Amino acid sequence: AQSVAQPEDQVKVAEGNPLTVKCTYSVSGNPYLFWYVQYPNRGLQFLLKYITGDNLVKGSYGFEAEFNKSQTSFHLKKPSALVSDSALYFCAVRDAGGYNKLIFGAGTRLAVHP
Amino acid sequence: KAGVTQTPRYLIKTRGQQVTLSCSPISGHRSVSWYQQTPGQGLQFLFEYFSETQRNKGNFPGRFSGRQFSNSRSEMNVSTLELGDSALYLCASSLATSGRGKNIQYFGAGTRLSVL
């Protein structure tokens, strides 16, 4: 069965420092991976996706993610965090059954302090 | 281009009642998926519709149902509400549904349902 794990419930970083939000996955076949962000009282906003190709994926708002097949990881990164990046981040994998079903991790709350 | 629109934004119901939530996808998008978000269970897939047909279904009881209209708008219905149905219900739309799963899903702001 497909699954996604986000091992950290919360990540705290200082503004201006680099940030990493971790995600590991378990899939059969090639993984289709996504990162979404959720701000309070809002839906999910798409950040980036990995389908095939370069292991470093660039996305919205300066975020990028590194796909590592041997470690089955897809960590979200940003070189310099902003206070406005504080939000709930979800990693997701497309279900192997096809179509558009996403399986989400539990989410990681990112807190960026001034 | 307008995003995914969900109505209403907030709902308060009592146990045993039924509720209908509405979702208007991004113009041109033909696939609509529904997810339930709760603090305990996180984000869970409910079902997906494409061209008025249910293409995929999550592990929810039959009290949860949905449909899609010819204009791609979708509704989901929950009958005989239980306290545990209190959640944020999110709708997502994408251009198409395919086995290659390259489609990005765009989410609405959600409908927050409270069951008393």
General description of the model:
The complex is a heterodimer of chains A (114) and B (116). In chain A, a hairpin with a 5-residue loop joins strand 5 (33-38) and strand 6. Chain A has 114 residues and is mostly beta strands. Chain A has strands at 3-5, 10-14, 19-21, 24-26, 33-38, 44-50, 56-58, 64-68, 73-78, 87-94, 102-104, 108-113. The model of chain A has no long low-confidence stretch (mean pLDDT 93). Chain B is mainly β. Chain B has strands spanning 5-7, 10-13, 19-24, 31-38, 42-50, 53-57, 64-68, 74-78, 87-94, 106-107, 111-115. In chain B, the strands form two sheets. In chain B, strands 2, 4, 5, 6, 9, 10 and 11 form a seven-stranded mixed sheet that branches. Chain B has a four-stranded antiparallel sheet with strand order 1-3-8-7, with no helix packed on it. In chain B, a hairpin with a 3-residue loop joins strand 4 and strand 5. Chain B is globular and about 35 Å long. The relative contact order of chain B is 0.32.
What count of helical segments of chain B does DSSP give? 0
Query: Could you say which structural class the secondary elements and strand pairing of chain B correspond to?
Result: mainly beta
Q: Summarize the biggest pleated sheet of chain A.
A: 6 strands, mixed
The overall pLDDT of chain A, averaged over residues, is: 93
Q: Briefly note the structural class of the backbone of chain A.
A: mainly beta
Q: Identify the most extensive interface between protein chains.
A: A-B, 26 and 29 residues
Fraction of residues in H or I helices of chain B: under 10%
* End-to-end separation of chain A: 41 Å
Task: Give start-end ranges of low-pLDDT stretches of chain B.
Answer: none
Low-confidence stretches of chain A: none
* Spatial shape of chain B: globular
Count of individual beta strands of chain B: 11
Largest sheet of chain B: 7 strands, mixed
Indicate the radius of gyration of chain B in whole angstroms. 13 Å
Mean pLDDT of chain B: 93
Order of helices and strands of chain B: EEEEEEEEEEE
Shape of chain A: globular
Task: Give the helix proportion of chain A (percent range).
Answer: under 10%
Question: How are helices and strands ordered from N to C of chain A?
Answer: EEEEEEEEEEEE
Strand percentage of chain A lies at: over 45%
